[in-house]
Amino acid sequence: MLFKDERFGMFIHWGIYSVNGWHEQDQWRRHIPKDEYMKQAKVFNPTKFDIDEWMELIKNAGMQYVCFTTKHHDGFCMWDTKFTDYNIMNTPYKKDILKEVADGCARHGIKLALYYSCPDWNYKHSVNFGGDHQLAKPNDGDEPDEELYKEYIRNQMGELLGGKYGKIDALFWDIPPYNKDESMNRFVRSLQPGIFINDRGYSRGDYSTPERNVPAGSRFTRLTEACQSVSSQSWGYRKDDDYFSKLFLMSSIDKIMSRGGNYLLNVGPDAFGEIPKKARENIAAIGDWFGRIRESLMGAEFVENSDIPYRLTVRDDYLYVHFDGLAMSSGFSMRPLDLAPIEAIVLNNGAEISAKVEYIPSNFMGASEPLRPYLHLNNIPVDEITAEPIILRLKFKDINEVLSILSGKGQSIKEIL
Ligand code: GLC
Fold first, then answer.
1. What is the largest CA-CA distance in the chain?
2. Cα–Cα 20 to 30 A to 306, which of 35, 112, 189, 289?
């Protein structure tokens, strides 16, 4: 189930905007007249698109689901819809791309979520002009009508969620419309019972979607799926985009997932159907790191604790220390914990580190306070492993005792002197 078993996914922004290769909101941001913009559909022909290659990249990175843009703000539909001609069947490609994606996912055991934009810069009855990511005014000849637009959306939901594309695990609406309408999500659920719905549609939905951002705080109290792209200028394909560093992305994945959130990492395939080389390389490297440290995130729980300046997760008998991509020192004291683990390793490479309960001078809180021993970790390879966030794994005989001390509910720390 998504949010439990499937936590790391690939967001895929793909549409005719990959032809211009500027930005998925090209029409709006550069004020391109609709007829001019639509010309991209006449040449969109991704002959190098190979869903199995995409799936290999996804699986090798340890990702377990895909969120695919069925219709972005431009209104172009990446599936065989009978409710508008502005769709993939009317391009030189002439094949239902969504069907290829859905079948590929099914073949490779990858779950599928669908992105669907509420703004629609093409459909004649679309509404909400002048708003966020909305055209300033209707295109010539359009007849905005909220009820007719919602009927169009319901019809398209019927196609997308009615069974042709198999089980759809989540619906990612984008850009909330002005007027709320609970019936829209009810309708979606009637088509795909058990589907997760995000918070950018006609009502609050099931999960939050922080975008390009790690919100402050500790454990997420609501289902959360953060999204970020490998590149910073655009979600769709952009020639010479600016790429985030791998360390930045790994650190962001670690921050979100250790707090219980899901993570969607985006790519924008080009007009030929290829995921840019730099995106593939970075995803492969991130996936390599993720594969080595995944047990500290997948199936692990965030540990609330106020004293240790690093995030902690727990799974079975293991406590994990996450350094956020910035380990300050080769050693530190895990105050208030005064128990030694039976094993302490750097999860990234399996190297052992030293972990002893001992007095160290920095635990001395003041001349009047008794000296106390705490678990002291040492020999952490902070100058050797600098290209990826370091995660430590400590194995304890009694993890519950550890958790109870960390939560402040345990026995008071033993005074030895
Ligand atoms: C924003 C953008 C959109 C992108 C989305 C991804 O809503 O408008 O272009 O698809 O973020 O979360």
1. 86
2. 289
